[in-house]
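Repro case for the chain-ordering regression, as requested:
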Amino acid sequence: MIGILKSTLKLHPEDYTSIVFFTGAGMSAESGVPTYRGKGGIWHKYRWEEYACQEAFDRNPKKVLKFHEKRRKVLFDCQPHAGHHVIADIEKRHPQVTVVTQNIDGMHQRAGSEKVIELHGSAWRLRCTGCSVVTQDFNKSYKSYTCECGSWLRPDIIWFGDMLNENVITRATKIIGNCDLFISIGTSGAVWPAAGFPQLAKSNEALCLEINPELSEMSYLYDELIRGKAGDILPELFEKIE
Ligand code: OAD
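-- result from build under test --
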C-alpha cells in the first residue's frame, strides 16, 4: 500500500530496538555527489559498459582508472550534509543503529558514522588484480595505477556484473531482517540485491519509510513516503527534543 506524505511525522530513536538507514546516491546529492540515474545522473553521461564493468577494465584498465580517479576528485571536495550528521548523531545516542549504503563515497564515515556496511565497496580502496591485496588510498589522485607486484590495481567497488561480497550481504541481510525501523533514503530501488531490502525489513514488520523527492521502484512497499530531500527531511524527522 502506498503511504501518504506526512511532513509532520516525528521519530524518536528510543522507541525502536534496531534502526537501519538504507542509503543510495540521493543521500549524497546535496553534498554535490552526482546520482547515477535521473537528472544529471552519471549513467546518462557515461556508458557503464565502457567504465564500470570487468570487461571494460580488461579492455582498457587505464581508461577505467582515469574515470574513477576523476570521480574521486569530485568526491574529495564534497562534504557531508545535515542529513549525514543526523544519522551519525543518532548512532551515538542509540545502541543499535546501522547504515547500509550503496554509496562508495565514504560520506557517512566522514560525518562520524561508525557502523556502516558498504554494499558496493569504496572509492577510497584499491584491489590488486594480481596479488589481491586491498589498500586504502584517501588522496585525490591514485598514488599509483599498479601494485608493487606489477599488476594493475582496480577500484575495490562492485561493478555491473560483479558478485557482491558474500560476508557483506550476510551481515546486511541479518541486520535488516531483524530491524524494527527501516529508513530508505535516496535510492531508486533499481539495483539488486539491495532493491530487495525493504521487503526483507517488512517481513520483520519493521516500520518502513522512504525519503526521496521522487517515487522509486520500491515505493509501493513502504508504510510512509516522505517526499523531500535527505538534508531537509532527516533533521525534521528526528528533531531533538531537549
Ligand atoms: P540512483 O541514481 O539510481 O537513484 C538516486 C535516487 O535518489 C533517485 O530515486 C532520486 O530521486 C533520489 N534523490 C535525488 N536527490 C535526492 C535528495 N536530495 N534526497 C533524497 N533522495 C534524492 O542511485 P542508487 O539507487 O544509489 O551501483 O543506485 C544504485 C546503484 O546503481 C549504485 O550504487 C551504483 C549504480 O549503478 C554501482 O555502481 C554498483
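Ordering looks correct now. The pocket of 2'-O-acetyl adenosine-5-diphosphoribose is lined by residues 24-26, 29-30, 35-38, 41, 52, 102, 120, 158, 185-188, 190-191, 211-214, 216, 229-230 (CB under 6 Å).
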